[in-house]
Amino acid sequence: MILQNQRVNKDIIIGIDAGTSLIKAVAFTHNGKEIGNSSVPNEYKISSNGNATQSLELTWKNCCRVIKLLKDQFSNLENRVSAISVTGQGDGTWLINEKGEPVCDAWLWLDSRSSDIAKKLSNLASEEMRFISTGTGMFAGQQSSQLLFMETHHPEILNKSKTAFHCKDWIYYKLTGVKGTDPSESCFTFGNFRTQNYDEDVISNLGLNKRKNILPKIINGSKTNHSLTSEASSLIGLSSGTPVVLSYIDAVCAFLGSGGYETNKNVGSSSLGTTSVHMKAAQISKIKLNTHLKSGYVMLLPIENTALQLQTNMSGMMNVNWLISLVNDIFKDFNIQFSNKNFLNKIDKWIENTEPQKLIYHPYISEAGERGPFINSDAQASLLGLSSKHRFPEIVRSFIEGLCFAARECYLAMGEIPEEIRITGGGSQSVSIRNIFSNILKTNVRTSTRKEAGAAGAAMTAAMSLGIYNEWNKCIEEWVTPLLGDIEKFDKNYANTYDELFETYLNSRSKIMPIWKQLN
Length: 520
Hints:
Shape: globular
Distance between the termini: 54 Å
């Protein structure tokens, strides 16, 4: 279907969100209405030795394809686009040579080859200094540990490399010919979030002084943009010279697009997806780092003197997906038809018919262990307190409570729990899950009808870059606020019960942590 519009004016911003498995191109009006959407699968390879790689050239081809698919939905789109803005998956290493060609396939954030190096870096005497500068814990998927692994085991790769990109940086380079990276990824990997620049001491203590010349310049996309090249124009079918914006990492864009930030309000954002992500913004001067845990991220926002604190639970709804798989396997053995949708529809009913039990679930079902708010690759899931009176609904409830206890722990590691949290992701679709989340964290919650939060956040950054808005407040008022649902208040009657269960959750975990290594 062609969307007709008789006026030929620059009234559309395209937000590109290049994820690990899917690349999306979304068209927005200047006041934030989504009017077109296309997506293309993005391929990546995982092998048994920990490799997780992605082709740079294929990613670029898929990006061109997704934009052309979006273009097919409109009449005269090439003359209506005021800007293209790019965000994408974080961490990882995307290397190009002097000619601008890929040196090798990208090493993704999922790549675990540098796990041992990341552990060694975490134990260095200089680690606390690095953490205080970057605000970010060390793990194998970060570019810093990956570059050091290459330096140690494959120096020939780095010898051929001219620039080290992240995913969105590569796409931006192909669109504009400009080499750069955004403030968020540059500073949480190699810099200082307070100075908003690279930090010589951080780079030196990582052992990467020899390679610091491959780090690209930092570009603040909310204030700067570059023009679409004629070569890229011919590939995607949009007008040469169209402004292109290098937006921030996908987590920052999703945070902005989903309503995680509101001026003068103590709000946060949680995505209850396969992995759970918990975020809240703070003035840079007020951020207090947890130097005991040394985990999570501090990501600069495109908002003056403001940064995002982020913690992730490696396994979010993955725990529920495991439970679904378990039930599915049993049903198959009895030749009974089963669908995932039926299970998800039952969750609310099961939870409604139960009350909090002295039943504790530790939600560490991922083989990768846990990385937020504590880092332990040996972490294992466990269910404690089962008795003959418990039935399946109580187990389902304990799984959901475990996810929410993990969320509470993440927010406490970043300071105080926000007064209101905007929830997204698959788990947010369940009223009962939202209620348990709200009651365990003792905070009010809201949902958003924004479907493509990452692309929206990228487009919002472009709207600021173009001067469509002079203040972020006004941009948020038009792009975010109208899509927020009603406030859902927590039930104070559950406060004491869940406070006690949370303490049991933490205490029981501390007792069984020594066993994890024996089970691996």
